[in-house]
Amino acid sequence: MEPIRIGVIGIGDISDVYLNNLKKYDAVKVVACASRGLEKAQRKAAQHGIPKAYASGDEVIADPEVDLILNLTTPQAHFQYNLAALQAGKHVYTEKPLAATFDEGRQLAGLAREKGLLLGCAPDTFLGGRLQNLRELIDNGTLGRITGGGAYFVGHGHEFHHPGPAFFYQPGAGPLYDMGPYYMTALLSLLGPVQRVCAMATKAGETRVVPSGPCEGQVLPVDVETHICATLEFACGAVVTLTCSFDVWDSELPRLELYGTKGTALIDEKDPISGPNLFGGDLLLRTPEHYRWRDHDRAPEVVGEPWAVVANAHPFNSVSHEENPRGIGLVDMVYAMRNGRAPRASGDMALHSLEVMECILRSASEHIFCEPSTSFERPAPLPLDFPRSEED
User: Fold this and answer.
1) CATH code of the domain in which 69 resides
2) Rounded Cα distance, 277 and 267, in Å
3) Which of 12, 140, 229, 292 is most buried, judged by most C-beta within 10 A?
4) Is the residue at 116 inside a domain?
């Protein structure tokens, strides 16, 4: 079959990862790209062998030879371009978040359904080997029924490394909207929809000072909560703690862990940002047979026994920040389009994620429980031989 023709809007640093990965799949072909400056777009097109370069996203959307828009613009522009692309009859796959607000996201999802178009959204890291490995432990009963868990993104913000960190402390960003979607999407893909939320939030100060780099000495207004603690009740019955913070200097917390009636599984990395935002890495498991206090009176040497590393046969196991399989969600969406099935990195799951995050902030602000109005179908596991499985 002919490849789906992709037009890319936004060609910042992350675009190279997407463009390099998409070249690996015959089902897609990037035919156009756009930046806010034509020369930059032309350089990117030459670098990756893209036939057309444009000076604006609107030009890519208007191109009749583009079937699908890949939106890699900054978050505040996501809704604008996603809406325009859907109105033009193009399928859309966008970087996270789907939109700046739940209301905007709901407009996009409704328009896509109305026009019979597919809408997909990053992050697609839940399709990586580590989280698919965890999904397998849930589905095959190794962990038993999931009763609870915890997901923790904790650090001290971006002013230590980012050349323009002011945005991260303004509405639409903060730790919840910046890194939270990776953790939220991981949980949703594993456990399904959330049915109730309660949360509290605070911030360490009204300003922050950039310590180094091109903005050294700049005083940043902090107009969002920077330490957020939420409790999520899932429709499956699990109750999970989610903590997202820019106010923590260091921590020994695991990045994500799930508690089942037959065992505990966790992601535990020394790198403080190597959580569900990466595709690969080890998954650790402890079952009743190795419970540290089970036989402590009789066999004290068992106490502190290392966690078992779960064998992993799943694809997409990169642990590199620079080279990773970003874009596999888009490729999966293209095969879903061809084979008449639901995409895994779906707009419905992204919309639910957006609403749950908005519920978290509303609960913290109004001191209430908040019940999301949306739901979604938990995505099917990714086959071990993807994408060959889609071509048989």
Assistant:
1) 3.40.50.720
2) 11
3) 229
4) yes
Q: What is the CA angle 74-80-83, rounded to 5? A: 125
Residue 156 shares a structural domain with residue 240: yes
* CA nearest to 36, candidates 71, 10, 63, 70: 10
Q: Is residue 357 part of a domain?
A: no
Task: Report the number of distinct structural domains present in the chain.
Answer: 2
Segments forming the whole domain that contains residue 264: 127-309
At position 296, the amino acid (one-letter code) is H
Report yes or no on whether pTM surpasses 0.90: yes
CATH number at residue 217: 3.30.360.10
pLDDT > 90? residue 184? yes
pLDDT at 340 over 90: yes
Q: What is the dihedral of CA 44, 280, 230, 97, to 10 degrees?
A: 20
Q: What is the DSSP letter of 218?
A: P
In 100-142, which residue ranges form alpha helices assigned H by DSSP?
Answer: 102-115, 129-139
Instruction: Enumerate the β-bridge partners of residue 7.
Output: 32, 69
Residue at token pair 């303004």: 170
Distance CA 370, CA 360 (A): 8
pLDDT at 302 over 90: no
